[in-house]
């Protein structure tokens, strides 16, 4: 019995879906080289053509090295040679920023709405008070392509200059072992300590993050039952 061929549009869509699934990976990176953090700047980057697998949650890590720009500015003089992004931000905001985040995805499917992190603070740098604010947003589209956006950037006074990535990336990992809260491949006492903190607080920042394993926005007895099973097994699978 002969089968009627698929319409060209449906055939193309099916091929695209199968191709995307075949090449999706548990981890992708978004390059940040050349991105500027200056007053009023915006930037957007993606992992294309690399795509990431659907998952209940993702770990987002931002790192790299930056220099001060322009060369004749205060930040250009302070960071004349590349320094780690975390070091530069600590100097400018007065605190060590946490550039690791967990992106919750209770549905376990794509797309995943963007999660934003705001960095802000001020510090006295070479006699001048510098104030920095920036919003970092990470998301995943329906095809599994991860995106990074930098917006709401203020660096004042503007005469101090800004920062520019010499190297760096956002790394997005699909998390399959939800109870491994410190991402070391084990579910042990270290994870229990992190879970207890969320359990005491009850509410989590957003569903499917921290100790909320069932995606209801709370860390409660239902999540404890899930954690105990993983804790007894020790190794993530």
- Overall mean pLDDT: 90
| Broad structural category | alpha+beta
Instruction: Tell the overall outline.
Output: globular
What's the SSE pattern? HEEEEHEHEEEEEHH
Helix content bin = 10-25%
Summed up, the helix count is: 5
Percentage of β-strand residues: 35-45%
How far the N terminus sits from the C terminus, by CA atoms, comes to 45 Å
Stretches where pLDDT is under 50 for at least 5 consecutive residues are 1-7, 9-22
Domains, number? 2
Number of β-strand runs:
10
Q: Note the main sheet.
A: 6 strands, antiparallel
Integer-rounded radius of gyration = 21 Å
SSE map:
Layout: H1 8-23, E1 27-31, E2 36-37, E3 43-46, E4 57-69, H2 74-78, E5 83-84, H3 85-93, E6 100-104, E7 112-125, E8 128-140, E9 146-156, E10 162-175, H4 189-201, H5 221-233
Give the gist of this structure.
This protein is 24% helix and 35% strand.
What does this protein look like?
The chain is an alpha+beta fold and 237 residues long. The chain folds into two domains: 154 residues, no CATH class; 45 residues, no CATH class. Helices cover 24% and strands 35% of the residues. The chain contains five helices and ten strands; from the N terminus they run αββββαβαβββββαα. The strands form two sheets. Strands 1, 2, 4, 5, 6 and 10 form a six-stranded antiparallel beta sheet that branches. The chain starts with 7 loop residues before the first helix and ends with a helix. The N terminus is likely disordered.
């Amino acid at each position: 019995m002969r089968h009627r061929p698929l319409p060209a549009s449906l055939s193309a869509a099916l091929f695209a879906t199968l191709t995307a699934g075949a090449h999706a990976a548990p981890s992708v990176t978004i390059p940040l080289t050349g991105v500027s953090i200056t007053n009023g700047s915006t930037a957007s980057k993606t992992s294309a053509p690399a795509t990431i697998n659907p998952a209940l949650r993702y770990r987002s890590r931002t790192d790299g090295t930056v220099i001060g720009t322009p060369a004749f500015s205060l930040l250009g003089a302070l960071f004349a040679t590349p320094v780690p992004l975390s070091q530069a931000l600590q100097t400018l905001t007065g605190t060590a920023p946490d550039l690791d985040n967990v992106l919750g995805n209770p549905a376990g499917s794509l797309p995943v709405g963007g999660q934003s992190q705001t960095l802000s603070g001020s510090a006295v740098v070479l006699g001048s008070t510098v104030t920095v604010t920036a919003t970092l947003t990470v998301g995943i589209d329906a095809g599994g392509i991860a995106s990074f956006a930098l917006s709401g950037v203020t660096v004042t006074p503007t005469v101090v200059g800004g920062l520019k990535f010499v190297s760096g990336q956002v790394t997005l990992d699909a998390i399959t072992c939800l109870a491994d809260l410190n991402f070391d491949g084990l579910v042990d006492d270290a994870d229990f300590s992190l879970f207890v903190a969320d359990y005491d607080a009850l509410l989590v920042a957003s569903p499917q993050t921290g100790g909320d394993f069932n995606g209801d926005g709370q860390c409660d007895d239902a999540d404890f039952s899930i954690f105990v099973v993983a804790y007894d097994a020790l190794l993530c699978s």
